[in-house]
Amino acid sequence: MKNHKIVPLDELAQIVSQLKAEGKKVVHCHGVFDLLHPGHILHFQAARGLGDILVVTITRDAYVDKGPGRPVFKERLRAESLAALEVIDYVAFNDWPTSVETIRRLRPDIYAKGSDYRHPEDDVTGKIKEEEQAILSVGGKAHFTDELTFSSTSLLNAHFSVYPEAAEKFLRDFRQRYSAEETIKWFQKLLPLKVLVLGDTIIDEYHYCAPMAKSPKENLIPAKYISEETFAGGILASANHVAGFCADVHLLTCLGIQNNYEKFILQHLRPNIKGKFFYREDAPTVVKRRFVDPAFLSKMFEVCFMNSHELPPAVAKQIADYLNACVSQYDLVVVNDFGHGFMTPEIIDVVCEKSRFLAVNAQTNSANMGFNLVTKYPRADYICLDEAEARLACHDRTGDLREINTRLAKSSGCSKVAVTQGHQGSLVYDREGGLFEIPVFSLEVKDRVGAGDAYFSITSPCVAAGFPAELVGFIGNAVGALAVRIVGNRTPVEPVPLFKFIKALLTA
């Protein structure tokens, strides 16, 4: 049965306009309201006491930016729960990530929020100020209620199995040592770091197509073209991840003269990234064209446009000379080595000898299987690999991964080593603190492409800034849980969603 209180937003705007014309004072509340609890009801009662009519808008599921597993209750059920309350007159869905545009459309007399939003400096989203400006712009005012508050996230974490069982157990213990506020404050240490990111540029193409029936004349399955997307991948994605957390980021890479994509690259780098490009005449810029079934983002086939040979000696010397002159100026050097020819012995020697802090990932993929091992780096301060890469580096296919992690750290002289294991989480070894096992925080996977790069890119400045190893692993797994929900490298992992997810994970 349709609830007459739940109305489309445009219709609600007309209703509010009519009510105000009749002299009614309209109060507006907005939120997720994932788990309706006594604190919400007290808040609504206090808000209703400020006027004659109370309207409530809720965040749609697509915009609930609190990480995997949220919202627990879908938008229609949340709306029906609110509409069942006598104190509320109308309910509508908010069609934007924030309530700013909704406030402008409804033009309420009062916009009411709970007391926990009173201090804008505590708001990780930075949106409360925008909401206050929006209500002032339509002639209304903001009001913060002082009723007893509860936390939906706290209640959900305590009474619902929002996260996998191993994660629930880990988080109960981890929350005793780290609060959300304390963890988020650690990120302030990253902002002043001067960072150099270098490695292979990769342009990722997703060509979406649907399989058709088998060809009657050939042993092949044709596919029907639907659409396509192009992403800034490889070291470009790494730089974009880092630049969300560090203010001064420099990118060093090499492009092919043939079809170099330079204009596209410049358009898809964050504004605080300064790019330095070198060029090779014997190759195109690397393009990985994947043919993808959009139904489940299943990869059907891949074509690579590349020259995997090392850089021409003259180009390698130019880059080595450039690095010789400047690499020691950086607080952190991030090397994401995809094994496509950029990281030559000359360049490796310079970054290993002169970097103040060096973070390295040497990636194993279909173009370099077994030939691109992290052991080619004589020195690193932080190494991050997936399980296959760690096993190849130690020539150990079946041994205990914890022992492999420790062995890798000791053989390389590296103070911290992280090994990611996909749905099994990650292991982080610290020379002083020992080995930490961090479980995965979500089993929800949309696309795994780029997730490991996101983990490495964002944990690298964390390690350089002195974060405890256990906290590094926690942050890395939170990043990974967000990254696998992003298609390809469509967007980097942003600070605000990460902070909101951390807050959701650590709210007890």
Keywords:
5-stranded parallel beta sheet; 508 residues; 9-stranded mixed beta sheet; alpha/beta
Offer a concise description of the structure.
With 508 residues, this protein is of the alpha/beta class. It is 34% helix and 25% strand.
Average pLDDT, all residues:
91
User: Number of domains in the coordinates?
Assistant: 2
What general outline do the C-alpha atoms trace? globular
The CATH superfamily title of the largest domain: Ribokinase
Q: Which spans have pLDDT < 50 for at least 5 consecutive residues? A: none
CATH topology of the largest domain: UDP-N-acetylmuramoyl-L-alanine:D-glutamate ligase
- Strand tally is 18
Number of helices: 17
Rg to the nearest angstrom?
26 Å
Specify the structural class: alpha/beta
**Residue share in helix:** 25-40%
Give the biggest sheet: 9 strands, mixed
Distance between the termini: 37 Å
Strand order of the largest sheet: 10-9-6-13-14-15-16-17-18
The top level CATH class name of the largest domain: Alpha Beta
What is the CATH architecture assignment of the largest domain? 3-Layer(aba) Sandwich
Strand content: 15-25%
